[in-house]
Task: structure prediction
Amino acid sequence: MDGLREKYLSEIAAAKDEAALESVRLAALGKKGEISLAMQGLRDMEPEARKAAGAALNVVRDEVQSALAAAKSALADAALAERLKTEWLDVTLPPRPAPVGTIHPVSQVTEEVTAIFAELGFAVEEGPHIETDWHNFDALNIPAEHPTRTEMDTFYMARAEGDDRPPHVLRTHTSPVQIRGMLKHGAPARFICPGRVYRADYDITHTPMFHQLEGLAIDRDVSMANLKWCLEEFCRAFFEVEGVELRFRASHFPFTEPSAEVDIRCSWTGGQLRIGEGDGWLEILGSGMIHPNVLRAGGIDPELWQGFAFGMGIDRLAMLKYGIPDLRAFFDSDLRWLRHYGFAALDAPTAHGGLGA
Ligand code: DAH
Result:
């Protein structure tokens, strides 16, 4: 009896965790445990001897049982103490300041541009970023062999093995939304399409994702004169300079005929760009009269309707208006940059409020 007692009390004292303790319990008091078996052995004894041995065995069993319970609660206490040490919290520390965000210049300029064109009667259209190559190219009068397809550094989506339809593309410009808008609304129409576009290109003035704004107006007798007025009106309001001067330069785009690139008069002095003065010209957009093939692809009869279209880079407009030198920083998600160039969250730009106010 004394041997059993010593053995199990010292094993209990040595158990380092609850699992070790449990195996001691099983070895002593489990169904096949040493103490349990000894108690079963009492059955074969003479009544007198059984009485004495049984009493002694009960004492040993009770002692081992209460040693187990005590050890178990000591281990639980130790585990709790350990956890409290790591979960300790200094409630007297001052709170960390919440990071303060601002409106990104691209969002701000998109809002500004939308507000200006809204006043000129343009609605807003949107289209998918993953576009069919028909919308992105063919419908815009850019056939398969046209050099523009390679010039645009297009990202092509993968097709399943054995599927030989032309792959979808990440739209390389917002022009495909022209087609979607025409097919949806028919003529007459007047809408802009701001949004993300993608090209495989990366340097100080190019990022693989950037933003464009497309615009078009279709009616019975729309002309280049309307286009000029519209863009001049836009630039005056956007750059907030009364004396803006635009220069229309003959150019070529597959989706317009005739086509013009538009430059804005500016000066660069001391690294400072000033719009509306000086001898410099800065290209800001492409435009023209919508090609009859494009109207046809949009389900509109070119014998009855004509229209103008234009496309510009939103990021570039933001750089020019707010003096931001590097395009790549636009997409770095650096809060310090955003605090410097960003805009107050509640100051929504309006044309009548003065956009930059
Ligand atoms: N899609 C042209 C580009 O990404 C921009 C453009 C030029 C759009 C002339 C037009 C346009 O609507 O008439 O470079």
About this structure: The longest helix spans residues 47-86. The radius of gyration is 40 Å. Residues 2-86 form one domain. The first strand starts at residue 123 and ends at 124.
